[in-house]
Structure formats: structure tokens, C-alpha cells
Write a structure and sequence with these properties.
About 40% of the residues lie in helices and about 15% in strands. Helix 1 links the parallel strand 2 and strand 3. Strands 1-2-3-5-7-10 form a six-stranded mixed beta sheet, with helices on both faces. It has a four-stranded mixed beta sheet with strand order 4-6-8-9. The two termini are about 35 Å apart. Helix 4 packs antiparallel against helix 5 and helix 8 runs antiparallel to helix 10.
């Protein structure tokens, strides 16, 4: 397994755990982190020993505050050749269909939404806050907020995008609008993310991966295509999934 300088990356029992590791700059990203994430997503996509993924962050104050405003990132001088950070950071833009769980604590701001917008499950600690500072700094909030508008009610996405540093969304509000599906005490966050990931890793692999891809692909389909195309995913995944099912015991369910 490669060594990375901006994150730690571990794989155990079918679960890949990615931990943002730049707490001294609130886990903001710059060129090195972008390049390392592109490599990490390639590994996650191609290694079928990885069946579920957890993304979390070191440090007390923040999950991530987006781009590192001091270090910046490389931008091609030709705007038509420029790469958006989401092309490096986004799991789905990198064709990763293994389920991704984001465990958010502290501040989650701006470019951090690249990760959240392409996560399958988001949980957070009770100290988490969500905001987008772009407009306060005279910048258009575009790709992050457009992705966010696909996950939460439009009015909520607009409010985060427009008000900048004037407001932060609480963990309670994030749960109410469905941005996160669970709020926990900070000390329980990582353990819970790991528990959920291992539950997914224990399921028939092709069934889980096919489900993730079908739902994400379906969001960009017309209603007519959404009634027809997903059938093909069952043809691809069900035969292998049913073979795996013989090795999977029925779990004890949890009420949430």
C-alpha cells in the first residue's frame, strides 16, 4: 500500500479507511492532496478486496474547510483546460461504486462538500457545523452548491450558498433536512462509521456495488429511462450476489 503525506489510508476486513491528515490547516486540500485522492480512488475502484469505504478526519476543529487558501492549487491558464477539484476528490467522478460513508466532525465548509456530495451515507458528531464561505470572499459558489442542491431541499442549498460566513448549519438542522442520517457524540463517531462500513462489507459485494451505481446513475436519467435502464444492473449483479448470499448469515436488525 502506498504511503501518502496528506491522508492516511488503511484497509482491513474489506473496509478502506481514509483519514484526512492536515489538521494544522483544518484539513484543507492543495495539489498534493488532490493527486493523492486521485490515486486512492483508483485503488478503491480496482481492488475488489475493498468493499466499503470510510472517510473521516484528524484534528479537533474541522473535518475540512475546503481549499487551502494559502497554498492554493494548480489552475491551468486556459479555463477550458482547467480541472475542477471534484475531478480528484469526488468518489463518483472517479467511478468508485463501493459505498462511501463520511464521518463529519467540527467545521465542514466550502470544498469539503465535494466529498459529501458524492457520499452514500453521511453521519456527523453533535459538534459538526456546515457552511460555504465563497460569497463572503467574493467568489461564486457553484460546483459545491449545485451538487448539494441534489441532496437537500433547494431552499436550504441556496441559503448555505448565499449567506457565506454569516451562518452555519448545525448538526441538528443537517439531520432534519436529510444532509446527514445520524448525529452522535463526538467520541462515538469513528466507531459508528466503522461499524456501518463493516456491515456493508459483509453483504454480497456485487449486490451492494450494483445498488450504489444504479441509484447514482438513475438520478441523472429521465423518468422513462429510470424505469428501464436499472433493470440491466440486476442482470449484471444478481447472479454473483446470490452465489455470495450462501456465505452470508442473516443479520440482527437495528431499529433507527
Amino acid at each position: 500500500m502506498s504511503e501518502y503525506s496528506t491522508v492516511s489510508f488503511e484497509v482491513a476486513d474489506g473496509v478502506a479507511t481514509i483519514t484526512l491528515n492536515r489538521p494544522h490547516v483544518l484539513n484543507s486540500f492543495e495539489n498534493t492532496m488532490l493527486e493523492e485522492f486521485a490515486e486512492i480512488w483508483r485503488v478503491c475502484r480496482t481492488d475488489d478486496g475493498i468493499r466499503a469505504i470510510v472517510l473521516r478526519a484528524n484534528g479537533d476543529r474541522a473535518f475540512s474547510t475546503g481549499v487551502d487558501r494559502n497554498s492554493g492549487r494548480y489552475r491551468h491558464p486556459n479555463p477550458f483546460s482547467e480541472d475542477d477539484p471534484g475531478m480528484f476528490l469526488g468518489a463518483k467522478q472517479n467511478r468508485v461504486w463501493k459505498p462511501l460513508i463520511c464521518a463529519v466532525h467540527g467545521m465542514c465548509a466550502g470544498g469539503a462538500f465535494y466529498w459529501l456530495n458524492e457520499a452514500d451515507v453521511i453521519i456527523c458528531s453533535d459538534d459538526a457545523t456546515f457552511f460555504d464561505p465563497h460569497t463572503t470572499y467574493g467568489m461564486v459558489s457553484a460546483l459545491e452548491s449545485v451538487g448539494l442542491a441534489r441532496r437537500i431541499p433547494l431552499g436550504e442549498a441556496m441559503r448555505i450558498a448565499l449567506f457565506g460566513l454569516d451562518e452555519r448549519m448545525s448538526s441538528r438542522r443537517a439531520l432534519e433536512i436529510g444532509l446527514v442520517s445520524e448525529v452522535l457524540p463526538r467520541e462515538d463517531l469513528w466507531k459508528r462509521a466503522d461499524q456501518l462500513a463493516h456491515r456493508l462489507a459483509a453483504k454480497p459485494f456485487m449486490a451492494v456495488q450494483g445498488t450504489v451505481k444504479a441509484i447514482w446513475d438513475g438520478m441523472s436519467m429521465s423518468p422513462s429511462a429510470g424505469r428501464e435502464v436499472p433493470l440491466h444492473y440486476t442482470h449484471l449483479g444478481n447472479a454473483v450476489g446470490k452465489l455470495e448470499m450462501a456465505q452470508v448469515s442473516k443479520p440482527q436488525w437495528e431499529l433507527r
